[in-house]
Automatic annotation (TrEMBL):
Record has Membrane as a keyword: yes
Alphabetical list of PANTHER family matching this protein: INNER MEMBRANE TRANSPORTER YGJI-RELATED, MGC138914 PROTEIN
Designated gene of the protein: LOC100628233
Subcellular localization: Cell membrane
Listed Gene3D superfamilies: Amino acid/polyamine transporter I (1.20.1740.10)
Record field: catalytic activity: L-arginine(in) = L-arginine(out); L-lysine(in) = L-lysine(out); L-ornithine(in) = L-ornithine(out)
UniProt keyword Metal-binding present: no
Membrane-crossing residue ranges in chain numbering: 48-69, 75-96, 108-134, 177-194, 203-221, 256-278, 299-324, 344-365, 395-414, 420-441, 486-507, 519-539, 551-570, 576-594
Family: Belongs to the amino acid-polyamine-organocation (APC) superfamily. Cationic amino acid transporter (CAT) (TC 2.A.3.3) family.
Record's keyword terms, sorted: Amino-acid transport, Cell membrane, Glycoprotein, Membrane, Transmembrane, Transmembrane helix, Transport
Taxonomic placement: Eukaryota, Metazoa, Chordata, Craniata, Vertebrata
Molecular function in Gene Ontology: amino acid transmembrane transporter activity; L-arginine transmembrane transporter activity
Protein name stated in the entry: Cationic amino acid transporter C-terminal domain-containing protein
Organism field: Sus scrofa (Pig)
Database matches in Pfam families: AA_permease_2, AA_permease_C
UniProt region (Disordered), positions on chain: 602-626
Amino acid sequence: MVPTSSTPSRMLHQYVCQFGQKLVRRRSLEPRDGSEGRMARCLNTLDLVSLGVGSTLGAGVYILAGAVAKDIAGPSIVLCFLVAALSSVLSGLCYAEFGARVPCSGSAYLYSYVTVGQLCAFITGWNLILSYIIGTASVARAWSSAFDSLIGNHISQVFKETFSPHVPHFLAKYPDFFALGLVLLLTGVLVLGARESALVTKVFTAINLLVLSFIILSGFIKGDLHNWQLTEQDYKLATAGSNDTSSLGPLGSGGFVPFGFGGIFHGAATCFFGFIGFDVIATTGEEARNPQRSIPLGIVISLFICFLAYFGVSATLTLMVPYYQIHPNSPLPQAFLQVGWDPARYVVAVGTLCALTSSLLGAMFPMPRVIYAMAEDGLLFRGLARIHARTRTPIMATLASGTLAGVMALLFELTDLVDLMSIGTLLAYSLVSFSVLVLRYQPDQNFSKKKTKEETEMDPVVEESPLESSLLDPISTTPTLKSGQIVYGCAFLLVLLLTILSLLLALWPSQVFSGDPGFTAGAVLLLLLIAGITVIIWRQPQNPSPLHFRVPALPVLPVLSIFVNVYLMMQMSSVTWAQFGVWMVIGFAIYFGYGIRHSLEENSDQEPPTSTSQALDKNPRSAKSA
């Protein structure tokens, strides 16, 4: 047969379709054969809570409250932390449901893989790795700097005198060998085992909480409620009667909310980043003794403890010192000095070092587990998935990630990369919320498992009447294939509309809220469309499968979570987005050059189906008995 002229175009079309299918192929929710039991299940709920609190409640609790209270919110910083905590809970609850649903390592990477597809999963995991590496290196340098200041800056002086001061602007002023040694030391702790790592974290987190409790109690004793009711007369008295109060910085209008509600929301956006870190708990799926119960409990309890600590410290600080006199770089030591408790600053120093230590371990703990999960799936180099026979930890991923983070802590100035770390974390939060939104409305928990043609033909045919496929009034009380597809389409459209709304609010907030006809009408139209699509999703039947934890108020809560995360991402500068683009180019080179060809899903696609494998796919729980 002579090929027609349309044959090349059909072949090209077929190739493009097959390539596109590879990008969106999804993992099964069931653990892979042989993967379960490779890592030691040794962590209880208390271990997970200590990991979550230690990772989240770092040095920010000693610094962040002062910076926000002085120039942004004043005494109303306590409300800033309340709003930020509620916003963080939106993402935390979504993580909690997936932790109960998928007891495996990988966190947001795995959740994206079973819901959205392989390419999105790789992007999520790749950016999580970046976030953890930058977080580890920056906390290590902060630990080194804090310790150095306690001993009179002798370490930095020696390094500055030893090494040349002429370095590129993106490198640190001097190589921080102390930070490198600290990262390598904790890498050794992680190699010893998850139980040992959790024990070290518990010790330092407990000391940190004791110090914070002392700060809160002593602050309430020495505090003055009048500092929440300041007036213009107080400002004049602070400058010895002078009318020039410019030296005090922005003052606002006085009272409890000196900068208005705008200050509260601006401060809440800054305080939100103080709650980042709880997602470390979601990476312990293969090491928790009872992950379906421990992971949701650990996330909720750790966020609650962190909120109490932030709330208490910010209240204490603004009660002890008028907000305009707070020292932004060392607020608590200066506050105790002002109220006559100078020795308390040594207690604060101990708490700061303990907080930094637990935060450093919290940043390092999930990093190799995400790398291990991606390598086990074949998206990263398979050698990184090696598990140590005795300690049952991902040893190659731990050594590789620890070494890379240590080198970054040694050489680079990381201040400009903190926002880049935030993009990766917020992207992961958004994808987890999206995944919860979609997965609850699918016909069964194994909807992502690819079926063969023979299996599809064996499935019972469920005919849907026009009423059953209605968007707003489905008759079926359980999810169908069509209702699941409707939710998928609506969820993707929601993300697009929320992104446009976030851009509008981030770039032109004054025009939107000042009543500008074009901008205000556009924002209202977007809100109406978002509300309408949310109602359509709400009307679809949910999967009744029992779970240890389920996100309440679906679909509203995940939609709010996506909006908060996307809006915060839109606050990042163009330079940060350019750096993000460079990192993604490196990631795509790895994925398209290696991962897409070595993925286990690629291998399973090429295996010819057998009757046995089809039967096991029909009933995955029978795989072990088979």
